[in-house]
Amino acid sequence: MASENVLGVTATDGAGPRDGGAGPRGGGAGPRADLAAYGYGGFATDYEARVEMDALRGERLGRARAALAASEFDALLTWKDENVRFLTGLRAQLIQGKTALLNGCLLTEDHLVLFVSGGEIDRVRLVMPWIEEVHAVPIMEARGLVAGAVAEVIAPALGRLGLAGGSLGLDELSYAQVLELGRALPHLRLGDGDALMQGVRAVKSAAELALMQEASAIAEAVTTAAIGAVGPGVREYDVVAEAMHTLFRLGGEMAHLATPFVASGEHMAPPNRFSSDKLIREGDLVFIDIGAMWNGYFSDMGRTVICGEPSRRQQEVFTAVHDSLVAATDAMRPGNTNDDVAAAVHGAGARYGLEDSFLSLFIGHGVGIGANEPPYVGEDLPGAETVELRAGMTMAIEPLIWLPGERGGAGVRLEDTVVVADGGGVALTRSGFDRALLIPG
Fold first, then answer.
1. Were both Cys, which of 193, 267, 349, 408 would link to 355 (CB 3.0–4.6 Å)?
2. Contact between 20 and 130 (Cβ < 8 Å)
3. Dist CA 201 CA 290 (whole Å)
4. Which domains does the chain have, with CATH numbers?
5. At residue 302, what are phi and psi to the nearest 5 degrees?
6. Could you tell me the pTM of the whole model?
7. Is 195 helix (H, G, I), strand (E, B) or coil?
8. Is there a contact between 314 and 343 (Cβ–Cβ < 8 Å)?
9. Helices then strands (H, E): number in the chain?
10. Which of 330, 334, 370 shows the shortest CA–CA distance to 347?
11. What is the pLDDT of residue 33?
12. What is the pLDDT of residues 338-390, one digit of tens each?
């Protein structure tokens, strides 16, 4: 039996593949058509059907293996942390700036090999029984250690699976790894496997959306805590501290950004995209962009509030950005493109004479098990692609308009995580908007 939830994502009842202990297809959704409709809670329960994590891992593996079978590749070797998480469920220690050098995964149509830091391997063996084969590797940065890991661990694993002369898709390996793979396996053909994984991850299942609902609930609480800390004499750092306490208290794994974004007053014109020791003052606009990750999935959201009373110009900028976000959300329908969404944003800004005042950055991006992933909305740099939207795609829509010279700043961003759905996008993030800044009408 197949049923469709309110977000247009089909949940299928029946036996699914047994990869990783998989149960019903749809990540454990079964006949629950409303699995992704709201956040049921983060606990495991015996009184209510929620996401079955074993089934979700199996469903994700099934999608990746189906895409692999239809591709030019015999196997994928992923090192990007979100791809490893998607394929294996590995949650590991992440070192800033090194996340694509720590843990890897080799996927074939019938085998899975995990390469992890020596600090993780004993824990993986104890708590991840679905992993078929695991090996310790160093941080893949020092050239000698990279050469040793490829020659003694990775190349032999490829050889045992009959891939020494095959075609291997890669995502985000260091160049040293690419060189050593060529040295150890000169007949191995290498290609871009990251585009394949982007396609696999683009449309979320009901179970994935359910996890994003929980991440959104945490992100809302994080944002509310940050807004509650805003006041004259409070530093941007203080706002972040309150938010991060709430994030970890509620079980969030990390913020959406490694550099939580709280900027006040003139720091939003142009935007300083990190927090600082600046004191918030009466009349300052304050932007908060921290978000949350839960069980591997991100929710990205941002809100701008006023400390004290706003000026008319601040209200005009805020209302233009608010209307741009509403227009973009409505345009997130199956069959539309990312360009249609961008046009809706710019059209709303034009109604206020602010179409030339948007930040020179994309105004939306994919989000899910990656904090920021293709496709992009409003990217105008060379090579930007037009992508047709499909039900179940999730994107963070984040228009930002800023004007110079306004006391207290005139820079505003508002951001929601939105699911593409029939009848218009559905925002997973529900926090309201500062009514003091919104011009009625």
1. 349
2. yes
3. 23
4. 72-192 (3.40.350.10), 204-427 (3.90.230.10)
5. -145, 145
6. 0.93
7. helix
8. no
9. 11, 20
10. 330
11. 54
12. 999 999 999 999 999 999 999 988 999 999 999 999 999 999 999 999 999 99
